[in-house]
């Protein structure tokens, strides 16, 4: 008896769902509106991967990075967009990021470029307000007399010398004078917090930076100091500040150097080594601490020959390093 053959072929009437860039983008915007930034970043990145040349997606991702304080990452994306075409809104978005970073001249340039190209644009009012703010700042800076500038430089250099040599008690009077006579020099507050911490007033130092973060949540120097303070105090909270710092890629050499040094001092040697490689210029080499911590970082990262070269160069420039035992034996 013949068996009936079964038809194993089924009708293919199901259309497979293949998400595209617009779908990912929509999901990302929805997550962003709900302030679920990590999820929003993942969705928008998928949209970019699907359509890498589409400017809107990168602009939206830059806005998310701006919202979470990753201003350098935001501007990197905006720069990529401007390199492939002229998406005018990028100029204002970049200006806003530079203003948050304190790079007011860069902010001024991009805000003016936006207004020149799109005087009636969606961000024209915001750009004009930003330019007004920068103009006021410029006027305040220009009001200093030359003798005041000379006095400030002398105070800063003297404080720097004592801090670089771990003479924190001697540094405090000069830092206090800067804070009293030049209140616009905000970095002095962070130097003061360091001086307090290393002269035994640790809780007071932490409170200064914690209070500063309440008013300025994206203050890089507060995150740097707190990462170091918490680490040296044995408190695990230092890790959240390390994570924030790791998302910041400043343009200024002084900030690059400070980030690298804090990574080194908190035993994040891989992160420190990457950052030290991007530090350049004589400004860094005038510091004995640059050679001390960079050589240690190189050694701990599996580069003993580079550590030795750095150490030898450091000894030539800063003979006082001879009192140290070298990168292979350095202790915090």
From TrEMBL:
<dbReference type="InterPro" id="IPR011990">
    <property type="entry name" value="TPR-like_helical_dom_sf"/>
</dbReference>
<protein>
    <recommendedName>
        <fullName>Tetratricopeptide repeat protein</fullName>
    </recommendedName>
</protein>
């Amino acid at each position: 008896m013949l068996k009936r053959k079964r038809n194993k072929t089924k009708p293919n009437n199901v259309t497979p769902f293949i998400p595209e860039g617009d779908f990912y983008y929509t999901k990302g915007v929805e997550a962003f509106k709900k302030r679920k930034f990590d999820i929003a970043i993942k969705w928008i990145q998928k949209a970019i991967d699907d359509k890498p040349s589409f400017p809107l997606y990168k602009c939206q991702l830059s806005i998310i990075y701006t919202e979470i304080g990753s201003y350098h990452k935001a501007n990197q994306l905006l720069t990529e967009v401007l390199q492939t075409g002229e998406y005018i809104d990028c100029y204002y978005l970049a200006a806003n990021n530079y203003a948050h970073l304190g790079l007011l001249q860069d902010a001024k340039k991009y805000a003016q470029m936006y207004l020149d190209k799109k005087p009636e644009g969606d961000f024209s009012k915001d750009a004009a307000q930003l330019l007004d703010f920068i103009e006021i700042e410029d006027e305040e800076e220009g009001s200093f007399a030359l003798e005041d500038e000379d006095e400030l430089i002398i105070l800063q250099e003297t404080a720097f010398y004592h801090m670089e040599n771990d003479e924190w008690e001697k540094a405090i009077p000069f830092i206090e004078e800067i804070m009293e006579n030049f209140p616009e020099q905000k970095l002095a507050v962070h130097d003061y917090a360091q001086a307090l911490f290393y002269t035994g007033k640790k809780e007071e130092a932490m409170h200064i930076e914690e209070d500063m973060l309440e008013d300025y949540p994206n203050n890089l120097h507060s995150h740097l100091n707190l990462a170091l303070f918490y680490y040296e105090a044995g408190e695990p909270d230092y890790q959240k500040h390390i994570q924030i710092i790791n998302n910041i890629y400043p343009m200024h050499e002084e900030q690059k150097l400070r980030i690298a040094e804090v990574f080194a001092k908190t035993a994040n040697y891989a992160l420190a080594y990457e950052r030290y490689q991007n530090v350049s210029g004589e400004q860094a080499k005038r510091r004995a601490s640059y050679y001390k911590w960079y050589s240690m970082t190189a050694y701990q990262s599996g580069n003993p020959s580079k550590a030795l070269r750095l150490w030898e160069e450091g000894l030539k420039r800063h003979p006082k390093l001879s009192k140290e035992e070298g990168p292979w034996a350095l202790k915090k």
